[in-house]
Amino acid sequence: MASGFWVMAKDTGRFLLCHRSPLVPEPNSWGIPSGKIEKNELPIEAAKRELKEETGYHGEIEFTGMSILEVKKLKFWTFLGVVPYEFTPILNNESQGYVWTSLDNLPHPLHPGVKWTLKKDR
Q: What are residue 84's DSSP bridge partners?
């Protein structure tokens, strides 16, 4: 089980995507801050923790939506979180870059989970 955030900046309406490093599954694709849900952790708690670990962000975030992907043994919660402003992420070794972008101008290749979320929500 895993969870993560689509992070949107209220001031610009743009979304944060991270360029995954060669050290993680689906390397060199663009994804959202996300990761494994630890034992006794709720999906929203895991998403918050992963956002902090992967981007250094620990400011205000408003939760406005959620979707759940279930494929075989995988269950993934995707939350939509709105932050007041775009911020400069402090990336850990799971990412090699980032971009704030609109849904009309997404970088490629996208992580398969990001593609699924976009199809589900449109």
A: none
